Fold this protein.
Amino acid sequence: MKRIWRRCGLAAALLAASWSRAREADTRAPFAWRQPIRGDIRPGDRFRVRVTDDIYDGCDDPLLADLRVFDTEGRPWPRLIWRDPSALVTTRVLAARQLNVSTAMPSGEVRLDADLSVDASRRPPIHNAVRIVLRGDEWIRPVTVLGRDDADTWMTLAAGHVLRLRHEGGLVQSDRVGYPPSDLRRLQVRVGSDPRRPEAAVIERIEVLADVLPAPDAPFERVEWTAIAPPAERPQWQSLLFDTRVRGGPLNRIEIEADGEYARPVTIWVAPHPTGTWIHIASDQIHRIGMDQRARLDVFGRGRYWRLDVFRGEDPPLANVRARAFRQIAWWVIEAVADGPAALYYGAASLTAPQHDLARRLRPEEIGALPVRELGPREPNPLCRPGIAPAWSRWAALAAVGAAAIAVAWVIARLLRVPPHAAGP
């Protein structure tokens, strides 16, 4: 009989250990970091907390899918990430009729004209850029964009470059030239020669673009970064390298200014380490010609180290370059399901975002009006158990407990079938 009770005790211990292990794996154990939410919280409260450098740096998923909100009992709370839509940049292609094919000019340039007069009784919509599609594989060509209404005199809207180059093992392309917002009816694009290639350009088509830019008061925040020396200078390029000191931090806007007049293509790269593999994020242009200036580059990328490659060709490098970085302000919107306190937990690899219906139950105007709560300092999660697979879910936890319960039942059934005389004294 004593042996039977010992075996039952071992089975009960197995069940208790399995339940404890399952509870840990199902809640806060996978996460490396914890950040408390300050203030009193009641069930049903809805509020916002700002996404900070600590969160961007601590999350393992670049889209912050591994962030959770738990109360002291380990219950998950619904949450969603939200950004003000007024800060988004959208671009649309306007209807335009091309008036000729790619035509050579005595100056050696090639021109193509476009007409935006879809309805002669109305002014064309505001436009501010053209995308130029050229034939060929690699080139760097100067571009001039001119415009007019019904008069015979063309006015210069912008001067810049388009390029397509093999660079850093990939293809870098900048095919867009911007200019001040305009409603002129006619546009003319002139593409010059590439000094490295004798053949004239062939313009396949142009697209007239209209950007819907962020509102003047759109919620952006300045990102502090530190200039560091690039590993090596490359011929015909001026490289600027910066460290944001935040792993996985996003950037949405970069502004570049310099002294004097210039028109330079720019390629933007990001990497986890300055000597690691660089990923191409965007290609664009900056210029200052007379009173016209383009310094802002809209980007979307995440990473700690950023490199700006300014193509200079045979020209001297830009002098007194000033580069600033910005990101769109992001918020976590949280709904309490129990009394506080509660905390954010993050820093767990291979977790997917949980499914909540909070976005369906909240309108954007309601989200913008929710109260803001502050976060305490980030700290290591004392419940973190590195040995527990972070992919465990509640179903995995229940499966583990169910398996342990079956094992206990099997042991008891075996013991009940043992003859009394076989159980020992």
Summary: Confidence is low (pLDDT under 50) at residues 18-24, 389-397. The chain has five helices and 28 strands.
